[in-house]
Amino acid sequence: MRGERDGTDDTDASGARQSIGARRNPASAAAILDAAEALLAEKGLGGFSIEAVARAARAGKPTIYRWWPSRTSLVLAVYQRSKQVLPEVDTGSVAGDCRAFLTSLLTYWRDTPSGQLFRSVVAEAQHNTEAAEVLAAYSDERHNGTANIFRRAMARGEIRADIDPVLAAEMLASFARGRLLTGRLDAPPAAIERVVDQFVGGLRA
Amino acid sequence: MRGERDGTDDTDASGARQSIGARRNPASAAAILDAAEALLAEKGLGGFSIEAVARAARAGKPTIYRWWPSRTSLVLAVYQRSKQVLPEVDTGSVAGDCRAFLTSLLTYWRDTPSGQLFRSVVAEAQHNTEAAEVLAAYSDERHNGTANIFRRAMARGEIRADIDPVLAAEMLASFARGRLLTGRLDAPPAAIERVVDQFVGGLRA
Amino acid sequence: MRGERDGTDDTDASGARQSIGARRNPASAAAILDAAEALLAEKGLGGFSIEAVARAARAGKPTIYRWWPSRTSLVLAVYQRSKQVLPEVDTGSVAGDCRAFLTSLLTYWRDTPSGQLFRSVVAEAQHNTEAAEVLAAYSDERHNGTANIFRRAMARGEIRADIDPVLAAEMLASFARGRLLTGRLDAPPAAIERVVDQFVGGLRA
Amino acid sequence: MRGERDGTDDTDASGARQSIGARRNPASAAAILDAAEALLAEKGLGGFSIEAVARAARAGKPTIYRWWPSRTSLVLAVYQRSKQVLPEVDTGSVAGDCRAFLTSLLTYWRDTPSGQLFRSVVAEAQHNTEAAEVLAAYSDERHNGTANIFRRAMARGEIRADIDPVLAAEMLASFARGRLLTGRLDAPPAAIERVVDQFVGGLRA
DNA sequence: ACCTAAGCGAGACGGTACGTCTCGTCTTGCG
DNA sequence: CGCAAGACGAGACGTACCGTCTCGCTTAGGT
User: Which bases of strand E sit closer than 7 A to a protein CB?
Assistant: First the structure.
């Protein structure tokens, strides 16, 4: 029977996505971001190109350029969409919190696409002003979040009153980032323990 | 039929650098590295291309590819050539050494092309295995060098005997690298002082 | 990382020919063929390169390769476009027709770019199968056209009934082609007269 | 390709041919011409390059350029070396001589490398003045040789006294060349017979 | 119920850079 | 001085993407 339809018939067989009128099609945006994320996660910044994203998303290049005016902004959009604050655990001690922070961050970067994604953003930020600004702002924000570890500890009287929580957070996070960027995410618990011990306890005899 | 040319060659007759026989011409290598370094320092990885290097160096592309098989390896070569260990000062105290280390490193990166150069290497390492390996090896080596600060302090009995000097060096250097990669090399002395204080003295009350 | 560009694009703003949508731009095709014809006519196959054509036509190389997958096919396209059947004159006698044919053909080749164009096609056909096939097919077609001279004469009873008109045409044309390919287009009328006399009258005493 | 040896590879097992003092080494010249001829015969002008010849002959490029200043002159040298006048048969009749001439020429071109070689020379002559001159001179010489067919016939009184023997030879040879250049060397005896009949007997009823 | 406006896919456009090939020149070290 | 070897500057090869453009289609919302 000609007219037989099994509801799944939208847009012909090939699944071409079309305009939904004079407004942005969220399906296209999603398809593009999905494709971009997949490409970035899979091959990193190399192999990531607007053409490749358009192909993978079955989208037209102008559709991409309309909403993300450059490669960088698409990378950033993917990154913004995917990033999620790691659950902030409160172990009750600053050392425990630091250990949990480092462990979960390294694991998160190692076991999800986010690691590759963040590496891409950092790489992009090394020669693109916009990405650099986004990265700097994001770093501030994250360090500020992580600083809660030290604010709590200070409130408990566990650490010195003259500690700068954000600076301490930056120091801790920098170590993790250094490991990410040099491809050494697989630090054993003992190594993390040592880092935390030196960081919290200081070096002095 | 490929590459047919009519006699209109004339090679410009001017200061053309030519072969010096069946062996590498150091003048060409130097010109290429100089040009590559200039481009990298001036514009970063963007704007850095083999074509541009060849143009700037008045060299043929095959001459570049003969000796540096990829963009990455040329970036690395430039970087290897330019890097120089900062003078290792011995101020007599671990805090002084750390302060000197951070201050001179940030200044060096800020005031010489080396900062941009190193940023390029890091960016390259985020999607290129070879660059990643070189960066990892270089990081190890540098941290090991910086670790001398802590080895000396340990010998003086100034710091705990269970400190891992290399790990401590990595923590200190990671902070500096984090600043480089997020474009914040202009830390005032007070900020550096604080970092060193927290790092050496620890957080504990 | 490939093809990264900083914003310094600016496309010159002048008379840039651009896309007219997702279909071929005839202006580009014309500009390319014009440029190719000019280059071929001026310098022959030497000095003819896709790069040179692209430069002269202010076209991108991919635009050329999109429509003409090889140098050969571009040469053939130029040739196909330019070729035009010489007016078929009917002088009333086979000798007169042959004389007119040879004279006008040699003159045409000598005084228009077509001579150089045809030489290029022949040269190309000596090492390229596609060009060889096109040349063979074209030769057949032309000889068949020229054969009309002999068909008319046969109808008039002027020549033997067992003459093969196409073969006769090939013999006549081969002589002209031989002159073209050896650079002897300036045959005086007397020489042509003699060729025609021997050809039509035969050798026998 | 380096180690590949076909029989033509003189020079002993180690393969290194060296200077024999301050004079030309005939073994090198021979190896070069052999290699060039093999390449031309095998792949035609495409695939023929000085580099390829040098590789195949295990010769240095300067050695080639020393003796043959251009690709064209090397092609011509190969051609000159290989060309050999076909045995001039005297069948006693002009028609028989013409038939023998065409048959043996087409067969020779079809069954030996000489056909491809001559095609290369003709192609080269279409955009290279030197080759054009050599080809023109060679054509003259050959036509003059072939003209003997008609000189003999004239002496026998078999053909008209006002025939131009060289011109007649050119007409005959042009037909054969046309066939060579359009890749139609496999004319059956009947077709050749017909050509000869029309040529010798003329067209007139 | 039309009509305008904008988003969509598609893909051609002028370009730049890629990495490879050959050009013709040069200089070496050996014989 | 001839030779093999091979580096050199130059530039064409054919391909991949760049970012821009226009097309023909679709649909929503204002008239």
Answer: 5-31
In a domain, B20, yes or no: no
Which three-class secondary structure string do you get for A73-97? HHHHHHHHHHCCCCCCCCCCCHHHH
Minimal Cα distance from D47: which residue of B?
B1
Confidence band of A5 (pLDDT split at 50, 70, 90): very low
Q: From the CA of B114 to the C1' of E16: give the distance in Å.
A: 28
Residue D21: its pLDDT value, please?
66
Does residue C7 sit at the B interface (CB-CB below 8 Å)? no
Higher pLDDT, C17 or C198: C198
Cα distances from B86 to residues A182, A192, B104, B142, C172, in angstroms, run 21, 29, 8, 10, 86
Residues A108 and A157 grouped into a single domain: yes
Q: Quick one: pLDDT band at residue A98, thresholds 50, 70, 90?
A: very high
- Residue-range definition of the domain harbouring residue B101: 84-201
- For residues A63 and A111, state if they share a domain: no
* Per-residue pLDDT at D11: 36
Q: How many helices (H) and strands (E) does chain A have?
A: 10, 0
User: So what's the pLDDT on residue D72?
Assistant: 86
Judge contact between B197 and B99, C-beta under 8 A: no
pLDDT for position C4: 42
With respect to residue B4, please indicate whether it lies within any of the assigned structural domains: no
For residues C124 and C187, membership in a common domain is answered with yes
Least confident of A95-104, D65-74, D177-186: D65-74
Task: Give A108 or A7, the one with higher predicted confidence.
Answer: A108
Indicate whether B135 and B178 sit together in one domain.
yes
What is the CB neighbour count within 10 angstroms for residue A65? 14
> Is B71 in the same domain as B141?
no
Chain F nucleotides covered by protein, CB below 7 Å: 1-29
Kindly state the DSSP code that residue D159 receives in the 8-state scheme.
B
Q: Which of B51-65, D9-23, D123-137 has the highest mean pLDDT?
A: B51-65
pLDDT band, residue C5 (cuts 50/70/90): very low
DSSP string computed for chain C: -TT---S-----SSS-----SSS--HHHHHHHHHHHHHHHHHH-STT--HHHHHHHHT--HHHHHHH--SHHHHHHHHHHHH--PPP----SSHHHHHHHHHHHHHHHHHHSTHHHHHHHHHHHHTT-HHHHHHHHHHHHHHHHHHTHHHHHHHHTT-B-TT--HHHHHHHHHHHHHHHHHTT-----HHHHHHHHHHHHH-SB-
Q: How far is the CA of B68 from the C1' of E16 (A)?
A: 21
Co-location of A98 and A47 in the same domain: no
C137 touches chain D (CB under 8 A): no
Q: Give the chain C residue nearest A48 (alpha carbons).
A: C1
Q: Integer distance in angstroms from CA A8 to C1' E10? A: 24
Give the pair of three-digit tokens for residue D54.
């040098």
Say if residues B37 and B113 touch (Cβ distance below 8 Å): yes
Q: Are residues C51 and C102 in the same domain?
A: no
Looking at the DSSP bridge assignments, the partners of residue B204 are: A159
Residue B142 in tokens: 């540098």
Q: Pick from A132, A171, A191: which is nearest to B198 by CB?
A: A171
Distance (Å, rounded) from C-alpha B52 to C-alpha C4?
A: 12
B91, B74: one domain: no
